[in-house]
Amino acid sequence: MKFPTFWIRLQNASGTIAARGWSDLSLDEATRHAEDRLQRILAALRNKKTLDLDRYSYVIDNVICEDVIDRIFDGDRELAVVSRNAYGSLILNASQMMFVDIDFPRPVRQGWIKRWFGKKEPPLPSPDIAILARLREWHATHPGFTMRVYRTAAGIRLIVVNKVYERVDEQATRVMQELGSDALYMQLCKSQACFRARLSPKPWRIGIAYPPKRFPFGDEAIRQAFSDWEQRYVELAKSFKVCIYLETLGAAPVHPDNQGLIQLHDELCCNERDLTLA
Fold it and tell me: pLDDT tens across 10-45, in order?
């Protein structure tokens, strides 16, 4: 997994452009990397090259810039990291336990002409029914997998519970693709060299804006602004949950390395109360 120890954020003289740098060795090395990135960004802008500055400040040298909240070990082996992503949600990053996120397709509605003449649209089928049917078909031809299935606000989440994967390699990616994983999700997993699952609600789904600032925080005032946002976010999040457990496909026993992470995931994501998914 790629979660560097040191992060720093630098700005140009006018404060209009920022760059982040990281290091596993020292803050000085992180600073040198940030300075180099800042100069590369400014040079690209001077040469009128198109840059996705938002992504450029978040995915840095193929590492995602996220604050580490906790690290979970089994002896000397790091099984997982809990991080906070760019919009403030907590993420469980598992080194070997596969999560798969499957997004619901966006519904296609009739045009205004048909609606104008009063022709009613037929009710749209529930997207989870179609996805669950496809997953059961896949599992029928891959009985060696045991998967826990969850409903999220906008899709389906799977946990492969009886296997562990040493890396997000071609074999793992092929399984994720066959199951219908979201392409962006797979890219994030590759960038961090782990499997990711959101543990807390997306802010806009619970009535709060994005955090005022991103990690790493430049000074105490910025850190306090984020802390104030976080307190509000945590309070609002108590009225929501991330997913609902639906079923398990397969009967092979849970791998011992996965047992504790599944329990942690379910405790944080699947509140037993009747709460709104977010």
Answer: 989 888 888 899 999 999 999 999 999 999 899 988
DSSP-assigned beta bridge partners for residue 71: 81
Give the count of beta carbons closer than 10 Å to the beta carbon of residue 215.
21
Cα–Cα distance, 226 to 117 (Å, whole number): 51
| Beta carbons of 150 and 101 less than 8 angstroms apart | no
pLDDT of residue 121: 55
Alpha helices, DSSP H, located in the chain: 27-46, 53-56, 112-116, 127-141, 170-179, 183-192, 220-237, 256-269
Cα–Cα distance list, 107 to 58, 103, 104, 117, 130 (Å): 30, 12, 9, 21, 13
d(CA 275, CA 278): 9
Q: Measured between alpha carbons, how far is 226 from 223 in angstroms, rounded to an integer? A: 5
Distances (CA, A) of 15 to 11, 18, 143, 214, 233: 5, 7, 56, 15, 28
pLDDT, one tens digit per residue, over 98-127 is 999 999 987 555 555 555 555 555 554 577
Per-residue CA distances from 234 to 222, 223, 239, 261 (Å): 18, 16, 10, 22
Q: How many CB atoms lie within 10 A of CB 70?
A: 11
Q: In the Cβ-directed half-sphere of 150, how many Cα atoms lie within 13 Å? A: 27
